[in-house]
Amino acid sequence: MRQQDPDGVLLIDKAAGMTSHDVVALVRRRLGIKKVGHCGTLDPLATGLLIVVVGRGTKIQDLLMAEDKEYTGTMRLGITTDSQDADGQVVETRPVPELTREQLDAAFAKFHGDFYQMPPMVSAIKKDGVPLYKLARQGKTVEREPRFVHVFAHEITGVHLPEIDFRVVCSKGFYVRTYAFDIGEELGCGAHLGALRRTKSGRFDVTNAITVDEVRNGDPAEVLRRTIDLPTVSRLRGA
Which of 43, 114, 219, 229 is catalytic? Predict the structure, then answer.
């Protein structure tokens, strides 16, 4: 007889077009588990690693969310949007100049190490108890507090203007779409995030994740067997 409510972590490769809450609801429904949460929201546009915690795993949710993340993405120069990504409304278009690799390297280098990042209006951060994205939908813009963030590593992996492919390893609370926006402003032509994939979070890697289709269509008992138990999670974290 299988355990109904396992304790631990499920690594899910989130599909595009879903919210992180959609994934949690799917796991809860398909696996019949009451206590389910996730660590680190992924926007609907994004794919990749979503750490889903089940049972007593929800008690270490904050610990897992605090760990560094790695992303790969594509920014598109010349177009800014109200959400700073491809799901938003176009705010401005500007010509993209002939940029050298040296200019691109210099722009990326400005956003390495410690710096402050202004959270976008289209975000889940709350102002007087109301998520900013709800205020943004009403056409409101409110003052936000800059966040202290850190980029540990970055790499330009491909240049095919107006698009630039990149990889970034960053701290908790980092907005990759704001990273794309800020680099676009540094280059003088604006930019938005066209695609994003989370590849790592702490010691966990998307290559070990189960797909949303496997959760939706697979044998629930087989999916449950992919749960990483809490002692193993602790060892992986070096705790």
Answer: 43
DSSP 85: B
Catalytic status, residue 43 = yes
Per residue in 46-105, pLDDT (tens digit) is 999 999 999 999 999 999 999 999 999 999 999 999 889 999 999 999 999 999 999 999
According to DSSP, the β-strands at 8-14 and 210-211 are parallel
Structural domain boundaries enclosing 45: 8-66+203-236
Q: Cα(44)–Cα(103) distance, rounded to whole angstroms?
A: 31
Nearest to 168 by CA among 72, 235, 86: 72
Exposed / middle / buried, residue 100 (Cβ in 10 Å: 0-12, 13-18, 19+): exposed
- Does the residue 1 lie in any domain? no
Residue of 137, 226, 119 whose CA lies nearest to 182 = 119
DSSP 8-class letter at 124: S
Same domain for 221 and 104 = no
Instruction: Please provide residue 88's backbone torsions phi and psi, each rounded to the nearest 5 degrees.
Output: -90, 175
Q: What is the CATH number of the domain that holds 154?
A: 3.30.2350.10
pLDDT less than 50: residues of the chain = 1-2
In terms of Cα–Cα distance, which of 54, 110, 58, 119 is closest to 84?
119
Residues 80, 178 within the same domain: yes
